[in-house]
Amino acid sequence: MPDELTHFDADGKAIMVDVGDKAITKREALAAGEVKMNPATLKKILDNTMKKGDVLAVARLAGIMGAKQTSNLIPLCHPLPITSVEVDFECEPEKGIVHIGALTKVTGQTGIEMEALTAVSIAALTIYDMCKAIDKEMEIGQIRLLRKSGGRSGTFVRPELNN
């Protein structure tokens, strides 16, 4: 196995990294993001009075489905037999913020970080889509990997979480 995995062959052409010789290990990733909106919009979400229905339930399902489609969305990303995807929300009504977390798991030869990040992104976009008629100024942001474990590169925990 080469010391450095790359998406380019010796001629500089794009390729999917060959992970065939990597060990099969349990891998897990946690990603987060947020949607900022008018507090009145979030109140409607929490009161379940949005015309399009239960925003957080639909966003949860969309995030899970998005994680499962990551290899179709991200070029050169390996399709993975995901064993678990959880998408959760924490709301700050007074600030109009929905915090999104996605935990993804796999037993495989390559990481699951992209699936966690995709789940968060798709959940956030779904919230935006379901609320855009009443709040076009929403902002999606802070999408980041919080931690990951398993695989050759070992465990990563975002430095601010170590405190």
UniProtKB/TrEMBL annotation:
<dbReference type="InterPro" id="IPR050105">
    <property type="entry name" value="MoCo_biosynth_MoaA/MoaC"/>
</dbReference>
<feature type="domain" description="Molybdopterin cofactor biosynthesis C (MoaC)">
    <location>
        <begin position="16"/>
        <end position="151"/>
    </location>
</feature>
<comment type="function">
    <text>Catalyzes the conversion of (8S)-3',8-cyclo-7,8-dihydroguanosine 5'-triphosphate to cyclic pyranopterin monophosphate (cPMP).</text>
</comment>
<dbReference type="Pfam" id="PF01967">
    <property type="entry name" value="MoaC"/>
</dbReference>
<dbReference type="GO" id="GO:0006777">
    <property type="term" value="P:Mo-molybdopterin cofactor biosynthetic process"/>
</dbReference>
<dbReference type="GO" id="GO:0061799">
    <property type="term" value="F:cyclic pyranopterin monophosphate synthase activity"/>
</dbReference>
<keyword id="KW-0501">Molybdenum cofactor biosynthesis</keyword>
<feature type="binding site">
    <location>
        <begin position="114"/>
        <end position="115"/>
    </location>
    <ligand>
        <name>substrate</name>
    </ligand>
</feature>
<protein>
    <recommendedName>
        <fullName>Cyclic pyranopterin monophosphate synthase</fullName>
        <ecNumber>4.6.1.17</ecNumber>
    </recommendedName>
</protein>
<dbReference type="InterPro" id="IPR023045">
    <property type="entry name" value="MoaC"/>
</dbReference>
<feature type="active site">
    <location>
        <position position="129"/>
    </location>
</feature>
<dbReference type="InterPro" id="IPR047594">
    <property type="entry name" value="MoaC_bact/euk"/>
</dbReference>
<comment type="pathway">
    <text>Cofactor biosynthesis; molybdopterin biosynthesis.</text>
</comment>
<feature type="binding site">
    <location>
        <begin position="76"/>
        <end position="78"/>
    </location>
    <ligand>
        <name>substrate</name>
    </ligand>
</feature>
<dbReference type="InterPro" id="IPR036522">
    <property type="entry name" value="MoaC_sf"/>
</dbReference>
<comment type="similarity">
    <text>Belongs to the MoaC family.</text>
</comment>
<dbReference type="InterPro" id="IPR002820">
    <property type="entry name" value="Mopterin_CF_biosynth-C_dom"/>
</dbReference>
<comment type="subunit">
    <text>Homohexamer; trimer of dimers.</text>
</comment>
<keyword id="KW-0456">Lyase</keyword>
